[in-house]
Amino acid sequence: MAERQITGRHVLIGFVAAFAVIIGVNLVLAYSAVRTFPGLEVRNGYIASQTFNERKAAQEALGWTLTAEARDGRLSLRFTGADGQAVRPARVEATIGRATEDHEDISTRLSYTGQGFEAPVDLGAGKWILRLRAYSADGILFQQRREILTDQS
Fold first, then answer.
1. What is the pLDDT of residue 38?
2. Distance between CA atoms of residues 153 and 147, nearest Å
3. Which among 40, 47, 116 has a CA at the least distance from the CA of 81?
4. Span 45-150: which CATH code?
5. CA nearest 103: which of 30, 31, 39?
6. In the beta sheet, which residues pair with residue 95?
7. Which domain of life is it from (predicted)?
8. 59 with 79: CB under 8 angstroms?
9. In which residue ranges of the chain is pLDDT below 70?
10. How many H helices and E strands in the chain?
């Protein structure tokens, strides 16, 4: 039987094939990352940072604490003041969605229940991110981003 020899042509084909696989996988991963990226948090981070300390101090001066949960098809939000009493913000805006994609984002219409705010939400099992903006009667912004874990068992 004749012995096969590896030639320069065989080595070139091997290198080209290996790099084609590497580049192909990188392109697929890059496309997937860009396709599912939900977007920017702020348009210009430098501009947003100019008033960060003032906004943070104003929010902390409110003394509000947020309790948020999603259970039995309902999103529940409760605000309490520094004195432990329930607080009713003048306006509340909430968006809940996955951490890595925006096609499941839900902007909810919250109703005041006397003790807090609620909205019907249909969330699958897993990790969700609540992006909340609430305003006091004098227009001070209270904003938080919270992880909410749901279980469909």
1. 64
2. 19
3. 116
4. 2.60.40.10
5. 39
6. 107, 131
7. Bacteria
8. no
9. 1, 38-40, 152-153
10. 3, 8
Distance CA 83, CA 62 (A): 11
Residue among 146, 139, 143, 134 at smallest CA distance from 42: 143
Residue 63 tokens read as 């003394």
pTM across the whole model: 0.69
Q: Give Cα 105 to chain centroid, integer Å.
A: 9
Quick one: tokens of 112?
Answer: 């005041």
Supply the Cα-derived Rg of the chain in whole angstroms: 25
Q: What is the pLDDT of residue 77?
A: 94
Alpha helices in 37-131 (DSSP H): 45-50, 52-62
Q: How far apart are CA 96 and CA 107, in angstroms?
A: 7
